C-alpha cells in the first residue's frame, strides 16, 4: 500500500522545507526619500563639533524573526523608541566616528573606513547586539555621504563627521541581551575640535576616577565609557586644564577621548615615539594605528613632511608612567606629547598637571612639534586625497 503524504506538507514528522532565515543587512534594498526642503549650510567659521546635522540620515532595524529590514535614507529627524528599550535602560549603545573629505577630483572620500567597521563589529559584539554585515553598512554610508556631499566643507581642518550608531531596542526591563536593534547613521559638518585652535592643550592627571580598567570595556567604543568621564572633566576645567589624562596608578592610559603619544630623544639623536599598548584599557584608535604606521615608515618607505631623511623614528607600544614623563622632562629628552583621534587628528599637549605640579612641554610655533606636525600634515593630505598611501582613502560614489 502506498503511503499518502499528509496535506500539511509534513512527511514522517519532518517539515517539507526549512524555516526562513532572518534577513541579512542588504544595501541593495535601500529606499531613498530626499528632503523636500534643504537646510542652509552655516559658514565654515561658525561650525562647532557635532552641533549642526545634515539633511538626511540612514536607518535600519533588526528583529530576531525577520532579521534586518530594508534600509532607509530619509530626511533627518527624531527616532521613535519604546521607553523600556535596552539602549535607555542598560546602555546597549555603540557608535563610531568617521570623516568625509572632498578630494582634488571633487569626489567625497572616507579615511580607512574598514577600520571603523571592524571596530564597530567588535564593540557591538561586546554588548551582545545583533551582528550585521559591515561591507553592506559601508555601502550605505558611502551612499549617504554621496547624497550629503554639499555638506562637506572644503576649508583646511574641516570635514563632514559621520556617526554610525547601533542601539539595542528590546522593549523589556529584563536584564538580558537585546535581540532587537536599530542601526543608524547621521552626519555633521565640523571645524577644528578644540576651540583653542593651535594652542597646545593642558592635561590634568586623574587617578581617583578611571576611564577604563583591566577586564573592563575601555578597549571598545561604547557609549557607556563616556558619561563617567564628564564629572572629572568638569573638575579639570575648574583647575584650568582642557582634558583629563587618565591614569591607572602611575600608568598612563588615554588623554581625554584621545590616544596618547610622546616623542623622546635618544642619545644617538634618533627619536622614540611611544604610545601605551592595546591592553584592554586602550581604545584601538584608527588615527592611533595610522600614526604608528606612518611614523614607522619614515624614512624607509616615505618621508614625512618637514622631517629630515637622516632622522629615524622608532615606534613602540609600551607602558608609559608619570614617573617616566617627569624624568624625561627633567633631563630634557621629552620633546613632544600629543593626543590623537578622529575628531582632532593630532593635538599638541603643552603641559600636564600631576600631584600639584606641572610638567611643561617644549613650545613650538604653531603648537605642534616637528613630529606631531609631520604626522598631522601627512594624515590630512591622505584624508583630502592629496597624497596616496596604500588603500587608506576610499571614494564615495
Automatic annotation (TrEMBL):
Residues modified as N6-(pyridoxal phosphate)lysine: 221
EC number from the UniProt entry: 2.6.1.42
UniProt cross-references to Pfam families, sorted A to Z: Aminotran_4
Chain segments carrying region Disordered: 1-22
The organism of origin for this protein: Trametes pubescens (White-rot fungus)
Required co-factors: pyridoxal 5'-phosphate
Segments of skewed composition (Polar residues): 1-10
Assigned protein family: Belongs to the class-IV pyridoxal-phosphate-dependent aminotransferase family.
Protein name: Branched-chain-amino-acid aminotransferase
Amino acid at each position: 500500500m502506498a503511503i499518502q503524504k499528509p496535506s500539511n506538507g509534513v512527511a514522517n514528522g519532518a517539515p517539507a522545507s526549512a524555516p526562513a532565515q532572518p534577513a541579512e543587512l542588504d544595501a541593495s534594498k535601500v529606499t531613498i526619500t530626499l528632503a523636500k526642503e534643504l537646510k542652509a549650510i552655516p559658514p565654515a567659521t561658525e561650525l562647532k563639533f557635532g552641533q549642526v546635522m545634515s539633511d538626511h540620515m540612514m536607518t535600519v532595524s533588526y528583529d530576531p524573526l525577520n532579521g534586518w529590514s530594508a534600509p532607509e535614507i530619509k530626511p533627518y529627524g527624531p527616532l521613535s523608541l519604546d521607553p523600556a528599550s535596552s539602549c535607555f535602560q542598560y546602555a546597549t549603545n555603540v557608535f563610531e566616528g568617521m570623516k568625509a573629505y572632498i578630494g582634488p577630483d571633487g569626489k567625497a572620500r572616507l579615511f580607512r573606513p574598514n577600520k571603523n567597521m571592524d571596530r564597530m563589529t567588535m564593540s557591538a559584539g561586546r554588548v551582545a547586539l545583533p551582528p550585521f554585515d559591515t561591507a553592506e553598512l559601508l555601502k550605505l554610508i558611502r551612499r549617504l555621504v554621496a547624497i550629503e556631499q554639499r555638506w562637506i566643507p572644503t576649508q583646511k581642518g574641516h570635514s563632514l563627521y559621520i556617526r554610525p550608531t547601533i542601539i539595542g531596542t528590546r522593549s523589556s526591563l529584563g536584564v538580558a541581551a537585546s535581540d532587537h536593534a536599530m542601526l543608524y547613521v547621521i552626519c555633521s559638518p565640523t571645524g577644528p575640535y578644540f576651540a583653542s585652535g593651535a594652542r597646545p592643550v593642558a592635561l590634568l592627571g586623574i587617578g581617583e576616577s578611571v576611564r577604563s580598567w583591566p577586564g573592563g570595556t575601555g578597549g571598545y567604543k561604547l557609549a557607556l565609557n563616556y558619561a563617567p568621564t564628564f564629572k572629572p572633566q568638569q573638575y579639570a576645567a575648574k583647575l584650568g586644564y582642557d582634558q583629563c589624562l587618565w591614569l591607572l596608578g602611575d600608568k598612563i592610559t588615554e588623554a581625554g577621548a584621545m590616544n596618547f603619544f610622546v616623542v623622546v630623544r635618544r642619545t644617538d639623536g634618533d627619536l622614540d615615539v611611544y604610545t601605551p599598548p592595546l591592553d584592554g584599557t586602550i581604545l584601538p584608535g584608527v588615527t592611533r594605528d595610522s600614526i604608528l604606521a606612518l611614523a614607522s615608515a619614515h624614512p624607509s618607505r616615505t618621508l614625512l613632511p618637514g622631517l629630515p631623511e637622516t632622522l629615524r623614528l622608532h615606534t613602540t607600544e609600551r607602558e608609559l608612567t608619570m614617573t617616566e614623563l617627569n624624568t624625561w622632562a627633567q633631563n630634557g629628552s621629552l620633546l613632544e606629547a600629543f593626543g590623537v583621534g578622529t575628531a582632532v587628528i593630532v593635538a599638541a599637549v603643552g603641559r600636564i598637571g600631576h600631584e600639584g605640579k606641572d610638567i611643561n612641554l617644549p613650545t613650538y610655533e604653531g603648537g605642534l612639534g616637528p613630529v606631531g606636525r609631520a604626522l598631522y600634515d601627512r594624515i590630512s593630505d591622505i584624508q583630502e586625497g592629496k597624497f596616496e598611501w596604500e588603500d587608506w582613502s576610499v571614494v564615495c560614489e
